[in-house]
Design goal:
Blueprint: H1 8-13, H2 17-33, E1 39-43, E2 46-51, E3 65-72, E4 77-81, H3 82-86, H4 88-100, E5 111-114, H5 122-130, H6 134-146
Antiparallel strand pairs: 1-2, 2-3, 3-4, 4-5
Helix pairs in contact: 2-5, 4-5
């Protein structure tokens, strides 16, 4: 479900209460663990955490480099983790930590889907968010583009 909201507050206010509470809780963990230099924005109809073009102007689409995102979709909510997608070691660590919680993992390449906050190991999400300072993620991005 794509949102036309222009601010994070507007996006959250437009959600049903249960989803607003769940996404607000995940957002709080993201903001607590997000390394300095990333910015929270509304882009592509979801809350994104990105590297400003002033820091990394050379991107494949001319848009700020997305590090993570948070969205309410039609049948689920999702956290998108670009670091987990772009780095095989990070993905292995993430999947191992996720499984160790005993929670059912519903994941695509970067998308972690959940229906209720209790379904999501929020501490594992926080670890993934805190993994890459901006410069390290920019380096990872450039290495991935050379493959």
């Amino acid at each position: 479900m794509r949102s036309d909201a222009t601010t994070v507050e507007e996006y959250l206010a437009g959600l049903p209460q249960d989803r607003r509470e769940a996404l607000s809780a995940v957002r709080s963990v993201i903001l607590d663990r997000l390394p300095d230099g990333y910015e929270e924005e509304m882009r592509w109809g979801m809350i994104t955490y990105e590297i400003p073009l002033a820091i990394q102007p050379d991107t494949y689409n001319g848009k700020p480099l997305m590090y993570a995102a948070l969205a309410s979709q039609k049948r689920h909510m999702a956290v998108y983790l670009s670091g987990v997608y772009a780095d095989d070691a990070a993905r292995e660590d993430f999947e191992q930590a996720y499984r160790a919680t005993g929670k059912r993992m519903d994941m695509g390449k970067s998308c972690v889907r959940f229906r209720r906050l209790d379904d999501l190991p929020i501490e594992v999400i926080g670890e993934a968010i805190g993994r890459y300072p901006v410069n390290d993620f920019v380096d990872l991005y450039h290495r991935a583009r050379r493959r």
